[in-house]
Amino acid sequence: MLLVDDEPDVRRMLAFFLESLGFRVIGEAGDGDRALELLGSLQPDAVILDLQMAGLDGFEALPRVRRLAPETRIVVYSGHIPPGVDELAAALGADAVVRKGSPLAEVEAALRG
Question: Are strands 73-78 and 46-49 parallel, antiparallel or unpaired?
Fold first, then answer.
């Protein structure tokens, strides 16, 4: 799994939670550019992607991640999800959208599909 979020504390929290469930975090990135760099070499089964990041944000990265890793499950995990973003994220290639602050069980459910 690749975690992409500009907040190191969020990445640490997600990694701790997901690894406690048996998921394996194989990479972390603080922006979309770094995520795309890692994606090719890591080939993760899943990506958790924040939308609001400096540099290449999640909206810009999402379709590129989908093109580079068509079989990878992509879960958008963001705190800033206004109405309509779920549909936009799906159109750009996301498999699921989870709002930050939701129970972490929702992240697990989104990853398991």
Answer: parallel
- At 26, which CATH number? 3.40.50.2300
Whole-model pTM over 0.85: yes
Residue pair 27/54 in contact (Cβ under 8 Å)? The answer is no
d(CA 99, CA 87): 14
- Report which residue type is found at 109: A
Whole-number Cα distances in Å, 106 to 6, 36, 41, 103: 21, 25, 28, 6
Looking at the 3D structure of the chain, how many domains does it have? 1
Q: What is the pLDDT of residues 58-98, one digit of tens each?
A: 999 999 999 999 999 999 999 877 788 889 999 999 999 99
Q: Token match 């799906």: residue?
A: 90
In the structure encoding, which two tokens stand for residue 28, read together? 């972390």
- Type of residue numbered 79: G
